[in-house]
Amino acid sequence: MESVNVLDRISCHNFVYADRYIYFSNWFYNGLFEVEIETGKTFFYGNFENEKFSEINVHKEIFIRDEKVYFCPWRGGHLHILNRADRTISSIEIRSKEEPFSLIETVTVGEDSMFFRFKEEEKSAKKFDFQSLKVTHVNHPSEIQGTPLADEKERFPDLPLLEENHIEYADRFFWKQISNGVWYGFMPMGRHLLRYIEESGRIEKNPLIVVNEIELQEYLHVVRKELLKQPVYEMPIKLQEFLECLKLREAYISDGSGKKNLGNKIWNTMLGMGKV
Fold first, then answer.
1. Chain centroid to CA 94: how far?
2. How crowded is residue 274: how many other Cβ atoms within 10 Å of its Cβ?
3. Of 7, 99, 3, 116, which Cα lies nearest the Cα of 53?
């Protein structure tokens, strides 16, 4: 098992491959990455606009069409589109902040449109038009046409091998067959690109080398600051990892009205939860 602090992990639920490069939305916080498949050289693009810096699972489904990479929201509220030609990213609202929160359960892609269905069955779906870039409501299931992206995923051919290599969360882990018999994926809890060649029956682990690491660390400082403003029970990380974030700051943190001891903050949070 690889022990890596949660904010140092670079991994994903899904990714796309194009012209030697892999693109994905990071699993553990709001961040877009590009990886050169042969070298492991990794570029941090930055955050996805209009989403919390510290949000986990901002996107889940992802696909490429006409040199544009579509990052489909899961916990996030926006569809993000990376134009590989000019390296710009656009943000299109799928679920507004005024709407009740609901995970996006299914993304269906048709010829002219894509559809987002929410986890609650009674909630209407949303339709995105590729040409107009407009989002509209869908009130009847018969309007949804196309293929769910989940149906197009390949199944990794040797799941027991993941257990032998101590790769956790295999049930949530996504691989893609880039060429015949050659599969790629990411270490779920670490910073490695994995390659599996069916002929050899082995998994190779190649470290991700972030070429703009300083920029990434500056951004992660912003993510940590946002995390520290949240109640402990709302955080997408474990308490121990929360404490590790605090090691990078002073022993006392400001809440806007003065300095408050960390122990008091945790104690008051637990009181609010009825845990003490």
1. 17
2. 6
3. 7
What is the per-residue DSSP string for 183-246? EEEE-TTSSEEEEEETTTTEEEEEE-EETTHHHHHHHHHHHHHHHHTS-GGG-SS-HHHHHHHH
How many contiguous H segments (helices) and E segments (strands) does the chain have?
A: 4, 20
**Among 59-73, 104-118, 223-237, 250-264, where is mean pLDDT lowest?**
250-264
Q: Can you name the residues that pair with 81 across neighbouring β-strands?
A: 70, 90
DSSP code of residue 98: T
The predicted model gives 102-110 an average pLDDT of 94
| Number of Cα atoms under 13 Å in the Cβ half of residue 251 | 1
Q: Closest Cα partner for 234 from 52, 25, 14?
A: 52
CB 104, CB 92: distance < 8 Å: no
Contact assessment for residue 51 and residue 5, using Cβ atoms and an 8 Å cutoff? no
53 DSSP 8-state letter: T
Instruction: For residues 135 and 114, give the distance between their C-alpha atoms in angstroms, rounded to a whole number.
Output: 10
Burial class (CB in 10 A: 0-12, 13-18, 19+), 118: buried
Residue with tokens 């996107």: 59
Phi, psi angles (nearest 5°) of residue 218: -65, -40
Tally Cβ neighbours within 10 Å of residue 30. Answer: 25
Total number of residues shown for the chain: 276
Stated as kind and residue range, the H or E segment containing 253 is strand 252-254
Q: Look at residue 166 in the predicted model and tell me its pLDDT.
A: 87
